[in-house]
Amino acid sequence: MAKKNQKEELANRLLGRRWESLSEREKRVIQHLGERQHISHDTNQEFDTKLTFGQRLADQVAAFGGSWTFIIIFAAVLLSWVLLNSLILARRGDAFDAYPYILLNLFLSMLAAIQAPVILMSQNRQGVKDRFDAAHDYEINLKAELEILSLHEKIDELREKNWTELITMQQEQIRLLTELLETRASAK
After folding, report:
1. Which of 33, 51, 112, 129 is the most exposed place for a label (fewest CB within 10 A)?
2. Higher pLDDT among residues 125 and 87, named by residue
C-alpha cells in the first residue's frame, strides 16, 4: 500500500495529475522513478529479437539494394549485357537480345517489381522502429525532467532550511551583541 501511495504522491507532486489519469508510459516512468531504477535499455536489441526470418531477409535485401556494391554490380551487368548483345554477338548474328533490349527491360521490370515491395516493407518496419525509439526517448526524457524537478525541490528545501538557520544564528548574534553593548554601557 505504501508503494501505491508513493506513486500517487509522485504523480500528483511532479505531474500535477492523479495516478489513474496517467498513461501507461507515464505510470511506468513514475514507477521507475519511485523505485530509483533506470529506464533506459537497448531498443535495437529488443526490436531485432522480434523480427521474423522474412523481415530480416527483407532488411538485408533493402540494405544491399541501397548500397554502392549493388549499383556497381548492376551497372557492370547492364554494360556487359549491352556490349555482349550489341558488339560481340550482333557481329556474329547470334544476339539473343538485340537493341532495344526487350529481354533486358523485362528483367529490369521484374527486378523492380520484386525489389520495390521488399524495400517498402523494410521502410515500414524502420518507421515502426523509429516510433518505438521515440516512445522510449520520451520515457527517458520525462524521467530526466522529473528527476531534475525533484532535485530542484530538494535544493529549494535545503536553501529554505539554511536561510532559517542563518536567520536564527543572526538573531542570536544580534542578541549577544546587544547584551555585550548593554554590559559595556553599564560598566561605564
Report:
1. 112
2. 125
